[in-house]
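Model the whole thing, not chain by chain.
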Amino acid sequence: MRDESRPPSLGTDATTGQLRLAGSWTLAHAAEMGERLRLAPEGVAAVDASTVDRLDSAGVLQLLRFARRRGLELEAFAFHDDHKALVEAIEDVADDRPKKKREYGVAAALARLGFSVHDNYREILALIGFLGENLVKFGRMLAQPRRFRLTSTVYHMEQVGLDAVPLVFLLSYLVGAVIAFLGANILRDFGAVIYVVELVSIAFLREFGVLLTAIVLAGRTASAFTAQIGAMQAREEIDAIRTLGLDPIDLLVMPRVIALVVMLPLLTFIAMIAGLLGGLTVGAFNLDIPPQAYLARMDATLEVRHFLVGLSKAPIFAVIIGLIGCLEGLQVEGTAQSVGERTTSSVVQTISLVIVIDAIMALWFMQMGI
Amino acid sequence: MTIRDDDIVIRIEGLENRFGDQVVHENLDLSVRRGEIIGVVGGSGAGKSVLMRSILGLRRPDAGRIEVLGIDARSEDEDDRHEIERNTGVLFQDGALFSSLTVGENVQVPLKEQHPEIPDSLRYELALLKVKLAGLPANALEKLPSQLSGGMRKRAGLARALALDPPLLFLDEPTAGLDPIGAAAFDELILTLQRALGLTVFLITHDLDTLYAICDRVAVLADRRVLVNAPIGEVERFDHPWVQQYFHGPRARAARQAGAGTMA
């Protein structure tokens, strides 16, 4: 059934003034049909379509549009018997058109702005609510330890913690080396290259160790949580969990958040060590600070409070990453696209919130003189 | 009754499908005539969907010949594939609508792909027409699949399957998951469209009511082949334990009476 059909054509019957159609009036010739009908002579009173070879819904649609433009009634058309059922079926549904509802312009832009502000407000409320719900459930879990899912928690500890070690180590090591390089370039002008040791160690212990780890986990883990829980939500698995008398928070959220709270400080410690090693390497190879001297300098100048300040932020970031990752997953609505949107949103939210909170805490610690 | 050769739209000879050691089809023959509604029945796992996927070229059979509209369905020639795709419409079980597109956009996808020269306004009109032919209200055009009920999703899937005016329509369990009223309405819709558009319909179903109400012939898939392919009255009398159980169980009796009612 190759398409060897004749193209659509029309001619005027000299005696009756009828428009006579021939050829195949089908989708394959959609553009041609429109063109032919546009060029049809004015003042046509009747159309004879009974001689066309093939007619499909696209052809009928074109003829109906033609009729509407020229103010013709359908009675003015003659169709082949084989085509009558088709024409009737299409004519039956030809009225009833949807209203165009898309709006453009300043009003629509303002409306969108308003909606997104409102959405953000609701997201923040939802996050605070979710934090509260989780705290309550956590309290309940402490009272009823049988609710704690050990296997699941350990599994997630491996996923978010152990599997992330190489990445966190490598990134921190490189950033440590870069800081040492940049710092040394400026400090050299003052003849104070040895201060690179303090620069790297304070930067890593206070800020970068925990911040780098949190950002890596926000990209790696928050997105994974959202996608896992989101896919379950889309396939109604979360609803199934609820109807089976189980609590999705106990089952899905708690193990993930607890795993993060345990693992993020440990990863932070690894990141700190890696960053210090990066500084040490650059010192040894480029700045003529032998490792012994580097370590001796660290031992002499470094205070434990820097380490504690850095580490104190880790559990807070862990809770943020875990909660946002899970909450976004639970908010997925049915479609594949929704899973994608929520995953993006969870990464963006976690990274932004981690940096904002880090900045606030840095200010606070400075003001308190810690 | 002799059937002229060009009246056979789908011709399958000696089809064989296997997954590892498990043989799904062996020596399966089936022919579908132009303009008929053929109902394909069989137990779960009898290979109904595999048969449909083989005909559509979604699965390469292990042996046998399949001809669709005179074209070898196993052909790897791009033009042949294209020709089959353009002449077949498929309604998958849950509609398989693209979830990120509105119903209207879903219907426009095949139009855009196969006929890029059609102007936007006409394409929109065609989509609107198909959506309404499938029995959906015009405002469904702007809705996302997730905003539709199961029955409406099937209708939207049907509208997309009809987008290119294919002469050959494949339906995979169109009434599964619909309530009896919705299912009856869908049967009615298929019949109406089949008559209006002159379709040949290949219909996989479990629904006895559908078989009695709209199918011209019924093909029974069992023992890895098509046991019988005939009007339902003959199939009922076919001597095979599965067929007897299927057509003479308690649910079949009610469907037969209802079917007789609609025929009268």
